Amino acid sequence: FDPVTSLALAVSDVTVQDIAVDGTSVITPIYITKCTGCTVERVNAKKAGLTHGIIRIHESFDVTVINSRLTGALGKFGDGVYLENTARAKVAFNTINDFTRVGIVAEGSGGGKSSAILAQGNNIYNGHDSETTEFNSGVWFENTSSGRILGNTVDDISGGAQANNSRGITVASGGAAGSVFDVEDNQVSGAMH
Question: In this structure, are residues 84 and 117 in contact, taking their beta carbons and an 8 Å threshold?
Fold first, then answer.
């Protein structure tokens, strides 16, 4: 699926579960756009190409990624789960490893923002060697107006030669005035900051 040239239809209440996906020959193994109430559950997905995310969620609402295993998010923007301009998403109880940028990203683009994002109980490790001067991080919320980062384990996030730096959990600028974030009970080791 090429999000630039393909037709994106708004859908609701779609579940993708109990499958294995090998994204060796595609840019993004699982791409969800304009979806309300969609769920990715018990998916074993590996190897993303050059762009954001083994699982990329764009302009969607009430989406859940749960109990899945994501491995090998490699390339220029190698992210495990990438949420863009998305609201009320839940990324919970997943294992995300071997990525070259960020395990879980929530951000906005084109003036939009993500909001009410929950990252909870995820095991995120082996973030390494970004191909650009991007940061490596376990969880990264930027251009996001609210979110909760609760009870995640982040380990072995090394910046590598190209990376700008490595972070365990990052809440960066770009949220609206009055933005609220709850960051609690996370375990971080093996990151520079």
Answer: no
Q: Which amino acid is at 18?
A: D
Residue 30 near residue 58 (C-beta atoms within 8 A):
no
Which residue, among 69, 94, 77, 101, has the nearest Cα to 151 in the 3D structure?
94
* 82 vs 103: CA distance, rounded Å: 8
> Residue 42 carries which side chain, given as an amino acid letter?
R
Could you list the pLDDT tens digit for every one of the 193 residues in the chain?
Answer: 444 434 456 789 999 999 998 887 777 889 999 999 999 999 999 887 666 789 999 999 999 999 999 999 887 788 999 999 999 999 999 999 999 889 999 999 888 999 999 999 999 999 887 677 777 899 999 999 999 999 999 998 876 555 567 789 999 866 666 788 999 999 999 776 5
* Rg of the chain on CA atoms, in Å: 15
DSSP string for 20-89: EEE-TTSS-SEEEESEES-EEES-EEEEE-SSS-SEEEES-BS-EEES-EEEEE-STT--SEEEES-BS-
- Tokens (6 digits) for 16: 């993708």
* Total Cβ atoms within 10 A of residue 6: 10
Q: DSSP string spanning 112-148?
A: --BBSEEEES-EEEEE---SSSPPEEEEEE-SBSEEE
